[in-house]
Specification:
The protein has 136 residues and is of the alpha+beta class. It has one domain. It has 3 helices and 7 strands, in the order ββαβββααββ. It is globular and about 40 Å long.
Length: 136
């Protein structure tokens, strides 16, 4: 399995390429990524992850739902997140579709919410990780 770090073309942060790498990076990774993307300002940080569950299904890649708490909660700052990885290193058939997420990321970049999604699309790599507010 890939060790899980891919530096993106939008923000200079190494994004995890699979769920285990995100779990290992935890609040430090999320805080750094959200600061770099502009989603989180000042000294605020992700204080804890209160939910981290894999979501089955879909045609490619792995997916997680995350619930987070911040040191300084603010109106409009998402606490319920959806994470989508373009890769599935445990399933060669699903992993073949790893390039399909590129157009989704370009579409998601048009979001009206500043700083969300936070995403990584690495140059010359099929690895993409996107983090967005969950839609209820």
């Amino acid at each position: 399995m890939n060790d899980g770090g891919v530096t993106g073309d939008r923000i200079n942060v190494a994004f995890p390429a699979h769920p285990a790498a995100l779990r290992d990076g935890g609040v430090t990774f999320l805080t750094n990524a959200f600061h770099a993307s502009g989603a989180l300002g000042g000294q605020n940080r992700v204080a804890r992850i209160t939910l981290c569950e894999e979501v089955p299904g879909g045609s490619t890649g792995r997916k997680l739902v995350l619930d987070v708490e911040y040191d300084e909660p603010q109106p409009g700052l998402p606490t319920e997140l959806f994470v989508k990885f373009s890769r599935d290193f445990d399933d060669a058939i699903r992993d073949r579709g790893r390039t399909q997420m590129d157009s989704e990321v370009r579409f998601a970049a048009l979001t009206p919410r500043p700083g969300f999604p936070s995403l990584c699309r690495a140059f010359n790599s099929p690895t993409i990780t996107a983090i967005a507010a969950r839609v209820s």
